[in-house]
Amino acid sequence: MTHRSLLHSVFGRLxxxxxxxxxxxxxxxxxxxxxTVRQQSRQALAREIDxxxxxxxxxxxxxxxxxxxxxIRDRLVLERADGEQGWYLxxxxxxxxxxxxxxxxxxxxxxxxxxxxIRIDGHGIHARATMLGxxxxxxxxxxxxxxxxxxxxxxxxFLTTGAxxxxxxxxxxxxxxxxxxxxxxxxxxxxxAVRNGDISARAPGDRASDELGTLAANTNHMLDQxxxxxxxxxxxxxxxAHEIRTPLMHLDTGLLKAxxxxxxxxxxxxxxxxxxxxxxxxxxxxxxxxxAGTEGMKGDVRGLNMVDLSAIGEGLADLxxxxxxxxxxxxxxxxxxxxxxxxxEMQLMRLMTNLLDNAFKYVPSGGHVLLRIGPGPRxxxxxxxxxxxxxxxxxxxDRYVRLxxxxxxxxxxxxxxxxxxxxxxxxxxxIHVEDAAPGARFVVEPERxxx
Amino acid sequence: xxxxxxxSVLLIEDDPETQANICDxxxxxxxxxxxxxxxxxxxxxxxxxxHDVIILDRMLPGLSGMDVIERLxxxxxxxxxxxxxxxxxxxxxxxxxxxxxxxxxxxxxxxxxxxxxIRALRRRAxxxATSAVILFGDMECHVKARTAxxxxxxxxxxxxxxxxxxYFMENAGEVxxxxxxxxxxxxxxxxxxxxVVDVNVGRLRRKLEEGxxxxxxxxxxxxxxxxxxx
Lengths: 451, 230
Hints:
heterodimer; A: alpha+beta; 5-stranded mixed beta sheet; 7 helices; 55% helix; B: alpha/beta; 5-stranded parallel beta sheet; 8 helices; 12 strands
């Protein structure tokens, strides 16, 4: 299971995006609430100020200046419920204080009964001024500190809620990212396992009713289908082999019986040749099915083991050295010990024998054949025979291509190199032939990336 | 070698023509043969334990050859099994051998090849314990010391030549086919396009025969070789 950071997972990114959106929403909501609270409080204070101002105006009108001064003092002594005191200033026409707790006349026009906010000790105070008489003007103010404290408290509440929300979202997001990530990883792991040859691997969680459950179920349906297709392909090739070999077997038995009963050497010769033809057809069939089967197994690592290429090379060198002597060839094997490859041992043997057979068939007596196995792995079979013309160096690996139909053993179908290439490709190896000047050099080495 | 005793074969094969053909071959070669046309019948006959070698077709109706071999082994029937199959690719041979059969022969086959395989299986089952020294004619094979002698004279052999000699000695007097040699000596489950087997046997033959009056390694035309008493 791969471990991803939140940022590298689709689900993690979704979580972070939703977290950002909800934090931004919380902030906007806070700003709107704070604005409403301030507005409401200002309106309430304005109403209170107006009422107070009207009351004090009445007192001035009925009781005169002395009465008003007394009432202002009363108000300043009074303890208000919100702990805030009211602000008052009764001043003469010159702005000099007669009564009240404001030191100086604010920049409010009494003639126009102007209202506004004034600042005292850093606090905002809503106030309204008014003319009571020619030599008396009054300012009444109320501090907005209560509203500010409320806004602060609301802000605190929003901050706490936002932090808790963010923490919970992160925790929840992380948990669901892990959980959802694991489910998607399960699907990915199934694909990877199948690609690596474990055809029976399936995605977990295909019974869940959500989208990921559907994804897992669809994945598994598709893998089932792939398995069925592979089986079907195999069955068809097995069936083909069976259906063709059985009548050939009958034909061969019939020829053999006829051969037993004839005394005519010419007939016996013809029957013998006919039997050879049957062997040839069987070999052709096997080779074609081998090539098709091997091509079908490309990338399939089932049943592959570490194969000691060096040991195979040594064994084949031993097997072929006698042939070389017989054919009058010098045969040399340069094998680096311990060259290993994960693969199918029998197929890799086949690959090397096909290349050796090829060299032995085409190199004339007195020639030289070299088998070299080195790290990489790199398998090389070189000879100093006639070589392969440039134009044929690609197509020689195609099926049924024989450059010199006269050479080689009778019944060769031109499939040896096609099978060699299929085997190489199955093992992620590439095969090519180059000019050994003189002669041909077949090289099998790992496929280049991107090739 | 215990050649006098008749070999009893059980054939499990559904194709009537192939069945008749194999029965003919067995009888012509002095074997007794019983045959079944499907896996169930074959298992019933095999249960008697009276057969030396079982020839089993791979593609049978109902129980497949693979199923039959599994049940035979489960039922503790130890007779060696030769699997006969229309699936002859190397891949199939290996799969068959891995499933527990003792030998694998693809159709169509040479009658001589079939007979050689049956006899070899029978011999292998009969002499499980290989002796330290195998004697045949005027030849000696010292298995532990890995040396070959003829008429008391040591014959120097390469390691592979010794393997070849030992295999011939173990199957002395019997036909040994090219396929058998490829499989047992070189572990190849397919036939290389060149005559490598003939060449290697030729080499061994020269070493065994040079300086001696009588030949010991005969070529059996079209099939393989036979080691005879010199």
